[in-house]
């Protein structure tokens, strides 16, 4: 790891993510072999497991140990509501055990754990202290303890994602992918058709990827396994996005579940652009990892209307793709905004991550061409209070009082009539609009 800004933070974060991956591997193995009661449903019907809480507690405790509990703000996914219920005693006991086993392993990763095992209340405190809401000022750690919990429970891909946001920008990202082999083409071998258990027994190792904003570099390390005689520093190699910019050769990734992304809209975009390969459906932020490693070229994600993407599902992955040479924006071509709390507020329709600008431009253009006729358009319009601007057609209008209004302009193929109707909203309140564009 190179010296520079955030080098201490990055160094600790990488090691802590290694610890978290090791924890997850044990819990996943146990979960798949014993079918025990380690999985719960949340109010929104999504899943949470012993691993999610245990990783959050472990990372929270280790970061506070390294940087001081007063100085640290952590935004993370999980809370302790379910764990505190009287019927959750055995679940809490499993979390306490997993956390203490993991913390006891800290020296293997060149870190210091606690002198004695943590109590249940200390662990609950560590989890619940990750309740920061982020925002535009200061430093905030952002943690998704297990991203792709569904994949985790199904014995498939998942990730541990830790990032840091400073003054609203992602400045550091670490992504642990325990079932994504460090070997080339690690993903294609472990898709749904190839259960991950074969990987565990074959002894192949997953990876931890990391980067720092502005470095123009993204690194990958192999995971460390218990039986290995190993001492830090771990070896790391640089990764880079793919150089493929011909759509007919490109591979696109998308979420596995239709509820998390509209597959048919993505298929329409893919066909408009001329993508030929079948979509690679992969759980979790491993999709970003695949783009950063050059094993896929495009990641499209179009959530259903009303769903607001959360910063912990994207921060680490977005920076990895960008620093490995790729481009990530919303579907209107604008950068994702990590400065507005726990949600990616103002996100325009979806997220597009690409290995290069050429493919990215084509995808954004195809989204515009397909949008008005899609079901997604009518369902999301009601929810869109913000502006959609095609990057190449952004017109700004300076008003006397120096406020800037911007209009959505459609892609070239749309008619003049649809141009008029497509001026649908403004950055400022409608009362700020004094000039009407007439064609
Ligand atoms: N309805 C809906 N739409 C969009 N996104 C949603 C939705 N519900 C949940 N989530 C978040 O998606 C995270 C999992 O994303 P994946 O890309 O792994 O999806 S999939 O499982 O492959 O379908 C998942 O992250 P984890 O909870 O950490 O697994 C959620 O934060
Ligand atoms: Mg979740
Ligand atoms: Mg997640
Ligand atoms: Mg999660």
TrEMBL record:
Taken from the record, one Pfam family name reads Inositol_P
Keywords, in A-Z order: Hydrolase, Magnesium, Metal-binding
The record's EC number reads: 3.1.3.7
* The organism's place on the tree of life at top rank: Eukaryota
Q: Which cofactor does this sequence's record say it needs?
A: Mg(2+)
The answer to whether the entry has keyword Hydrolase is yes
User: Which organism is this protein's natural source?
Assistant: Rehmannia glutinosa (Chinese foxglove)
What this protein is called in its record is 3'(2'),5'-bisphosphate nucleotidase
- Answer whether the UniProt record assigns the keyword Hydrolase to this protein: yes
Query: What's the top EC group for this one?
Result: hydrolase
Q: Which reaction does it catalyse?
A: adenosine 3',5'-bisphosphate + H2O = AMP + phosphate; 3'-phosphoadenylyl sulfate + H2O = adenosine 5'-phosphosulfate + phosphate
């Amino acid at each position: 790891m190179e010296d520079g800004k955030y080098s201490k933070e990055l160094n600790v974060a990488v090691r802590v993510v290694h610890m978290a991956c090791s924890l997850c591997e044990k819990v996943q193995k146990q979960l798949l072999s014993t079918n025990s009661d380690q999985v719960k449903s949340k109010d929104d019907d999504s899943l949470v497991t012993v691993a999610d809480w245990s990783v959050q507690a472990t990372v929270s405790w280790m970061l506070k140990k390294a940087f001081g509990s007063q100085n640290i703000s952590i935004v993370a996914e999980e809370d302790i509501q379910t764990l505190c219920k009287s019927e959750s005693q055995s679940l809490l006991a499993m979390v306490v055990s997993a956390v203490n086993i993991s913390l006891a392993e800290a020296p293997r990763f060149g870190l210091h754990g606690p002198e004695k095992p943590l109590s249940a209340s200390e662990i609950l405190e560590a989890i619940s202290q990750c309740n920061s809401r982020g925002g535009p000022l200061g430093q905030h750690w952002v943690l998704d303890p297990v991203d792709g919990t569904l994949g985790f429970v199904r014995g498939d891909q998942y990730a541990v994602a830790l990032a840091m946001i400073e003054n609203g920008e992602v400045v550091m990202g670490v992504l642990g992918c325990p079932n994504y082999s460090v070997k080339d083409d690690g993903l294609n071998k472990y898709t749904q058709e190839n259960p991950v258990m074969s990987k565990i027994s074959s002894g192949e190792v997953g990876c931890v990827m990391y980067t720092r904003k502005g470095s123009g570099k993204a690194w990958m390390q192999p995971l460390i396994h218990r039986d290995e005689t190993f001492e830090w520093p771990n070896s790391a190699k640089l990764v880079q996005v793919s150089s493929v910019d011909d759509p007919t050769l490109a591979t696109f990734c998308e979420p596995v579940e239709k509820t998390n992304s509209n597959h048919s809209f993505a298929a329409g975009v893919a066909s408009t652009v001329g993508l030929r390969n079948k979509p690679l459906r992969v759980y979790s932020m491993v999709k970003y990892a695949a783009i950063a490693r050059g094993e896929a070229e495009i990641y499209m994600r179009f959530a259903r209307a009303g769903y607001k993407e959360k910063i912990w599902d994207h921060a680490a992955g977005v920076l990895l793709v960008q620093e490995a040479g790729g481009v990530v924006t919303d579907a209107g071509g604008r950068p994702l905004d990590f400065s507005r709390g726990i949600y990616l507020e103002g996100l325009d329709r979806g997220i597009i991550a690409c290995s290069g600008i050429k493919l990215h431009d084509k995808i954004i253009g195809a989204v515009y061409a397909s949008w008005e006729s899609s079901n997604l358009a009518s369902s999301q319009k009601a929810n869109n209070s913000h502006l959609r601007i095609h990057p190449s057609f952004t017109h700004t209008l300076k008003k006397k009082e120096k406020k800037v209004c911007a209009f959505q302009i459609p892609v070239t193929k749309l008619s003049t009539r649809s141009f008029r109707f497509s001026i649908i909203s403004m950055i400022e309140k409608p009362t700020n609009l004094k000039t009407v564009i007439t064609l």
